[in-house]
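User: Could you write out the 3D structure of this protein bound to heme C? I've included everything you need below.
Assistant: Certainly. Input first, then the structure.
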Amino acid sequence: MRLLAVTVSVGAALLVMTAPGYAAGGDAIFKKNCASCHYTDGPAKEKTIADQLAKKGPELWYAGSKFKKDWLVAWLQNPKQIRPLKYNSLSDVNKGDHPKQSAGDAAATADFLMGLTSAEVKAGVITAKVTPQAKAIFGKKMPCGGCHEYSEKGEVRGGKSGPSLAGAGKRLNPDWVNAYLANIKVFKPVRDMPDFASALNPKDIEGVAAYIATFE
Ligand code: HEC
Ligand code: HEC
């Protein structure tokens, strides 16, 4: 009787595992469809430029600190270019051919990714705000707009070598932007973006992070 019960329950478990349409967890979906281009175990692995160039996509080990969940769920179903240029290229255009997910898979994968956080990011420090000082730093004093697109009065302007910051208010957690500008090495030990932590004081960095959070 006991043996029969065990056999039946093992059989039932196998059925559940192989039944078509069974929604796998986000980590399993990620492993199968995404892990060939993105790594999710931190801290940062890149040590040399060759390591960075070998990556097929951005690291996602701090995705839960970086992204806003609503944006992530929507983007995974309908991915639009973030970097105007192809990943790791300074000349080729980004064709916008990122893999698309179904609504169910995107929700499960986003749940998994939002669980990947970095202790470097202090929550609840930055709220979206435009200040003349931050605007001047972004547009004039520091050449942020020379490498990043942003939109002003409904028009997209700025450089193309960095990720676009147009729509950053919906995409990026401002507390992550603050941590990123203050201590870029944690996230990008090998990078194309200058380190601004010595040029800007912590208050200015917070102001710029709050300003980027207003970008539509
Ligand atoms: C063939 C390689 C490849 C595969 C497979 C892939 N990605 Fe990507 N992913 C990229 C590249 C390249 C980018 C940069 C796209 C851009 O900037 O527009 C990217 C960007 C992203 C971003 C935004 C990251 C950032 O820092 O801007 C997320 C989130 C993401 N991918 C999740 C996923 C998920 C989830 C899957 C699996 C369903 C997946 N990717 C599969 C290459 C890939
Ligand atoms: C020389 C070009 C350059 C300048 C100048 C520059 N950036 Fe960047 N920025 C980049 C690149 C390239 C990346 C992508 C990460 C990398 O490879 O370092 C990036 C990434 C970022 C990100 C993360 C975006 C994302 O989706 O991952 C933010 C936020 C950012 N920069 C803000 C700024 C601010 C604020 C300034 C001015 C204080 C600035 N950048 C100046 C090139 C630049």
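The chain has two domains: 24-114, 132-212.
User: Perfect, thank you.
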